[in-house]
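Structural prep section.
Before we set up the soaks we want a predicted structure of the protein with acetamide in place, mainly to decide which crystallisation condition to try first. Input record follows.
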Amino acid sequence: MKILLFALFNILTVYHLLAQTILPTPMEIIKRDSFFRFTDSISVSWNNKGENEARYFEEKFPTEKIVYTKNDSQANLFFNTIENKTLGDEGYRLEVLSHQIIISANNEAGFFYGLQSLFFLMPNVVLDPGISLFNVRIFCQEITDKPKYPWRSFMLDSGRQYQSPAFIKKYLDRMAMLKMNTFHWHLTEKLGWRLEIKRYPKLTSIGSNVAIGPEQQGFYTQKQIRDIIAYAKKLHIQVVPEIDVPGHANAALTAYPELTCFNKMPEKGDEYHSTLFCGGNEKTYEFLENILDEVCELFPSEYIHLGGDEAPKANWDKCPLCQKKIKKENLKDSHELQLYFSKRLANYLRLKGKKAIFWGDVVYSDGITLPDNVVIYWWNWNGHEDKALKNALARGHQVICGTNFGTYLNYPIEPWGHYGKNRTFDLRQTYDENPSDLKNPNPLVLGMGTSLWTDWNVREHMIDQRVFPRIFSLAEQMWHVGEKIPYNEFYMRVKLKRSFMKLMGIKYGPAIFPEIPENYSWE
Ligand code: ACM
Ligand code: ZN
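Run finished without errors. Recording the tokens verbatim:
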């Protein structure tokens, strides 16, 4: 009997230990004997920076009575401001001692990430109001951690499908848990313009209603956007808006058809985005600059994404205004006109102290040099492999890596809808074969992004099963410094997190299974 109990105790201890795995994997963990347990009260303190992060702890445990005092270095949880060059802006040290937990960092972001790691060590209590903090045993350890990349983004396509502000906030929470710091918000598309622009009200009164289907209607008021930005800021997430031009803009051009080449409303079902903003019409530039005035006023981020992908030039090739502009500016053709267009908008953003991000399409050909405040988002692995990456680096641009194979989480795991076999990948492929996971990244590589496009009616309720658990692979590649964990071990860790994620309302999709269950519903 004794032996049995001893074995059971050991099994539980091992399970407990494994369940306390932190993802993305920290840079260094030194395990110690013994464990920490909250005893008769919960005290939290800080000595300099970190009060907001200390209070975020309270937000996570609203039913606990927590005593807050500044400068109580003996508190159960102590936020210790230090000066440590190697930890940088986002790194932290988390020490779990038998009598106290100390998070040390240079800055607030470091405290916040230390806290996120601590939550992974308390898997049964976070967000489960039924369990008290007093029941938690945390194994003693010392963790030193910092990110691999300064840019770690998640993109959500709110253009094709509208999602509620509550849903957006839920995803911001999940990004924070995964230590991602940039919400790339794709706000304008062929099927919907979602951003209130006071100067051009038809963008939303018409442009947010162009698509058929109730879920596709809707837009965000500037007040709602401010609220979301403030929410994200507390989670140390910057919100980078994307205004996709000159293509992918049918919704805007349905509202303002006078800005198309032939003053013609885009046709419904124009799958290939053949209607662009006219690149020869000065009114286009005036319109977009006025929009950027409001966008820059609204979004504090240093970066504004201006799209630039998939803009077929059939209309520009025929349009008298476009052709006149090409002549006047000594351009070779319509492709160079897009570079001229991109350069003008990037220079406009430079006047406001901002950087412009463009999809890699703008560096495929030679021609006009883009300004040095341009950052390239390398996406089209399926179409052009690493051409955008190579060309951007050769021209000295910073790059964000987010290839469609490996990081586009709307790509399913098996063929579905319009996604054929070549547009599928599973958890192992995301982890081991993702082209964006560079071996020796050039210093111009700012980081990595992952995207959830909502083509083919991917609605809110269909998103988790696509994102989870594959996003753990991407978070790992964005954050983890040091040797890569072998896939089998990584897989086991992700699997162990399943019940913890369930507590948070996250349901893993079939990427967690070796085989997809028969007749699995992606809808
Ligand atoms: C893209 O997927 N069209 C950027
Ligand atoms: Zn034109």
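Observations: Residues 199 and 291 are 8 Å apart (CA to CA).
Flagged for discussion at group meeting.
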